Structures are given as C-alpha cells and as structure tokens.
Amino acid sequence: MWPNSAADGIFLQPNLFFLALKRKIINDPVYGFISIRHAFILELIDHPWFQRLRRIAQLGLSHLVYPGALHNRFQHAIGAMHLMQNAIDELRLKGNEITDEEEVSLLCAILLHDIGHGPFSHALEYTIASEVHHERISSLMMNRLNEHFNGKLTMAIAIFNNEYPKKFLHQLVSSQLDMDRLDYLARDSFFSGVVEGQVGSERILKMLDVVDDQLVVEEKGIYSIEKFIVARRFMYWQVYLHKTVLSAEFMLVNALRRAQVLARSGATLHCSPALHYFLYNQVKQDELISKPEALQHYASLDDFDIAAALKVWQHHDDRVLAMIATNMVNRSLFKIEIQRTPFDASRVSREIERISAKYGFTKEEASYFVIQSSVDNRAYNSQYDVIRILMKDGSVRDAAEVSDHLNIAALSSVVEKHFVAYLR
C-alpha cells in the first residue's frame, strides 16, 4: 500500500484510483528525461508482466541487419507513455477536458498496448499461440492485470477496446496517428541508424486538437504529417520488411514449427518450462482464456527462452532442427529473392528437390529449408481510419485531400511483394 503522506511526495485522490509521485524519472536515449507522475503507473511498470517487455526485442531479428537495433518493447512502451503525457498536456491547454482519472487510464492503456507480444515481437506471431493475434493476448493480459489491481484498469481497458464514450481517447492509443506509431518510428529510426525514419513528433503533438470528439491536426501541421507518412513507408520496406530480416524471421518460424512437430511426436527437446508448454501443447485462444496456467506460461516466455533453446538444438539428433538452429545462431541465413509478382510453384519444387538430393532429406524435411510467402504494406490506410486536418475555416478534412506537396492518396495503395528463400 502506498503511504498517504505529503512528506513522502504521494497524494491520494478521493477515489483512491491514482497517486502522484513527487519525482520519478527515467533517462531515455530518444527523449531525454521522462517523468512518471503517478504512483500507480510506477506500480504497473514494476509488475513482472510489464518487466518482461525488457526481454522482448522491439524489432524482432532486425539486429541481424542493423546491429544497433537491440532495443526492446519496454523502452517503446515507456516512450509511448511519454508522448501520451505530452499529448494530454497539449490537448488540455487547448481547452479539451481530460479528467485526472482519464489521464491515468490513457497512460495505462498505452503502456500495456504491446504487453501481449511474444518472443521477438512479430516474428513468432501465430506460431507460439496458434491463430491468436498479439492484440487479443494484450486484452487477455490486461483483464487479468485488472483483477490483480482490483479494477483500477477498467477505464484503461475500455479506452483500449474503443468502448469508452470519448472516442478521441482511443485514437490517441490506436489510430493512424497514435502515440504508438509516433514513438516506434522515432525509436526504431534512432536505434537502427536509418535516419529517413525520423519524424517531428514534438511538432505534431503541438498541432493536436479535438473537434466533435475526433482527434485532429491543425492545418499548419500538414507537412509534418506528410513527413510522418513517408517515414512510415520507408521504415517498413527498409527495416521492418527488409528482405534479410524476412529470411531470418521465417527461418525462426520454421525452427519452432519443426520443434513442435518433434515434441508432439514424443521427442525430447531441451527448453524452458514456458517454451515446453507451447511446444508440447497446441495452445489456442480458448486455452488462453479458460486455463490460467496457459496465460501465465505465455507471460513467462521471452526472447531468452528461444535463444537458449536454439543454442542447444544445434546438437539435436534431428538433422532438420539442428541445421536450422545452427544457421540461426551463426547468422547463416537463407538466400532470399523478392519480386512484385508471385513465384512459379515449380521454382519452389526445384529448390526442395535440390536440397533433398544434396542433404539426403525427404521432401517433407527439405520443405523446412524453402520458404515461399508474400508481404504487403500501405503507409496510409484511409479505409481503416483517416488523419483529420483542421482547416483554418473550421472544416475538418482527410489529410489525403489536403496535401499539396505530396500525393498521400497514392501512399494508401497496398504494395505487395513476393519472395522465396532457400538454403544456399
């Protein structure tokens, strides 16, 4: 229980929901000193489920291409919280009502928005827990945390799920221009060294306002929005969907797929208790909801479990698993070819036959060493949501219609790329 004493720098509010710290700061390499203003926020940050984010890489396996990209989900969540606090301050200055309880709930929502990420972030999505998106797991974990904190996260969960009456609060957490995107572009650009991804988040925050319960950007901020959209497009193709990163991440998926096949056929695999649970059991959404131990095992799983397992699996009796694990540990990645049109099926068959003949694998075994898939991206998805620009005449328009410097509408089209990756 937090002390109720001004001497301790902590002040209870009437509803006992939030507490304010006199001074608590985190030194962040992107923004400098970040202040934590509420004791409940610090309590949430200190929870083991949130501390786990220190052991989840923000950019998956991107460090195999950009050696500096070793930052984690914990840093990203703290940075997004900092931007959220700045956005709240700016919106209040412009006369928009955000209560103290809504402020704390917004900070909680943005802190927890990524808590459901599995090892190496997006790399193993749908592989650890079958057919379950990380945002759904985030919701499940937030609900469990809400029980632990006696309902203090109820409003945060409502905002996160877009069930709170003030819709602009949800837009700060999840939209085309949310605090999540503003932070990850700035942070990923910083740590990867890809300067083209830098965005002017401070100016964008200064331009925020609310009209008819919708988040808007003042007209004079349109060029900052253009830069934001272009930076996002560039970062996706240059960093997030870089072809070498794709090769590494799909190799990791195949290593886990092979380990699951072996485990469920009775083979012995060295791994942590948390990873053991997901290798030897096919865990779907229903299990995560109905079985408390399933979600607890998930909350115990991080990058370290996978990395340690790969080191040991190099020496496993199964040659397929051993070869993929060895290649992952030593960064001997599959060669990858990428193009705008799909690859012919015969191309994949030829690679499988080549590997089968060279290494004495069956075709089923050789298929683990050939990957065919596709990726797509759009920098601005006007079908999902729009960035609203508040014009000087008081009207509100879609950013794609307003831009006179850049054709944002063109950036809303989906760009799809197909690839094939294979053992050299």
User: What is the overall pLDDT average?
Assistant: 91
Rg on CA atoms, Å = 23 Å
Distance between the termini: 59 Å
Poorly predicted parts: 1-18
CATH homologous superfamily identity of the largest domain: Hypothetical protein af1432
CATH architecture of the largest domain: Orthogonal Bundle
Main β sheet profile: 4 strands, mixed
CATH class of the largest domain: Mainly Alpha
Physical arrangement of strands within the biggest beta sheet: 5-6-9-10
Give the overall shape, derived from the CA principal axes.
Answer: globular
Helix content: 40-55%
Number of DSSP-assigned strands: 11
Stated plainly, the CATH topology of the largest domain is called Hypothetical protein af1432
Tally of individual helices: 20
> Could you say which structural class the secondary elements and strand pairing correspond to?
alpha+beta
β-strand percent reads 5-15%
- The structural domain count equals 2
How would you describe this structure to a colleague?
A hairpin with a 6-residue loop joins β1 and β2 (19-20). The chain has helices at 39-45, 48-51, 73-93, 100-111, 134-148, 154-160, 167-173, 179-192, 201-206, 222-240, 243-264, 273-280, 285-290, 292-299, 303-313, 319-329, 345-359, 363-366, 399-402, 408-411, and strands at residues 11-12, 19-20, 25-28, 32-35, 208-211, 214-218, 335-339, 370-377, 388-390, 396-398, 415-422. Residues 1-18 have low confidence and may be disordered. The longest helix has 22 residues, at 243-264. It is of the alpha+beta class and 424 residues long. α3 (73-93) crosses α8, α4 (100-111) runs parallel beside α7 and α8 crosses α10. The strands form four sheets. Strands 5-6-9-10 form a four-stranded mixed beta sheet. 48% of the residues lie in helices and 11% in strands. It folds into two domains: 6-242 and 378-411, Hypothetical protein af1432 (Orthogonal Bundle), CATH 1.10.3210.10; 262-376, Growth Hormone, Chain: A (Up-down Bundle). The chain is built from 20 helices and eleven strands.
